[in-house]
TrEMBL record:
SUPFAM superfamilies: GST C-terminal domain-like, Thioredoxin-like
Entry superkingdom: Eukaryota
Protein's UniProt name: Glutathione S-transferase
A GO CC term assigned to this protein in UniProt: cytosol
Organism: Astyanax mexicanus (Blind cave fish)
Boundaries of every GST N-terminal domain copy: 2-81
Free-text function comment from the UniProt entry: Conjugation of reduced glutathione to a wide number of exogenous and endogenous hydrophobic electrophiles.
UniProt-listed InterPro entries: Glutathione-S-Trfase_C-like, Glutathione-S-Trfase_C_sf, Glutathione_S-Trfase, Glutathione_S-Trfase_N, GST_C, GST_pi, GST_superfamily, Thioredoxin-like_sf
GO biological process terms, semicolon-separated: glutathione metabolic process
Gene Ontology terms for molecular function: glutathione transferase activity
Lineage of source species: Eukaryota, Metazoa, Chordata, Craniata, Vertebrata
Keyword terms: Cytoplasm, Mitochondrion, Nucleus, Transferase
Amino acid sequence: MAPYTITYFAVRGRCGATRIMLADQGQEWKEIVVSFEDWMKGDLKKTCVFGQLPKFEDGGLTLFQSNTFLRHLGRKHGAYGKNDCEAAQIDMFNDGVEDLRTKYLKMIYQEYETGKDAYIKDLPNHLCKFEAVLAKNKSGFLVGDSISFADYSLFEVLLNHLVLSPTCLDSLPALKSFVDTLSARPKIKAFLDSEDYKKLPINGNGKQ
Ligand SMILES: N[C@@H](CCC(=O)N[C@@H](CSC(=S)NCCc1ccccc1)C(=O)NCC(=O)O)C(=O)O
């Protein structure tokens, strides 16, 4: 039986990075897909600590908060740096990715028609921060010399932004190389090519 279970809506959404990390780490997982209709009945919502999905189960451990899933898997699978200093930097960059993801989700769900063009125009001001980090750290990862959960998080949010704006990395060579390198990792490539990945919309409102 797969040790991990994701309970979420039929979207990539806030589980995109977790699924890519699980795939790259050679892990299997079960998906419990919740329809919006069932969710609105409220029974499952009452059982969620913060009244929201996704939910992540690791054996008897039940977690909520998507970034918590990434940190937990980072600890379990050696993707959280080699010491406390690297771990702190990984946390910092993942928090920075979360800031970008939050801006993206706000535009997608609340301002798509009126704010998409301005969001894309302002995007370089946010992406350049991650470009500078990757240009400085010659390993090809955000921190240290091996992949961390923050790399998966950044990678996934960049994939989503490449759908929104296919040219958004054209003037950012370190980020372009980062995406190309992670996309070529055999287990990530296999997952991104899979129907399980491709069948899910990025967001719950059909916007991307
Ligand atoms: N900080 C949390 C945020 C969890 C969250 O926002 N969950 C959303 C779904 S994830 C997401 S990207 N929400 C954006 C809008 C959306 C709503 C419902 C389904 C799909 C998307 C949710 O459960 N909405 C339903 C509700 O609150 O009753 C996390 O990172 O997991």
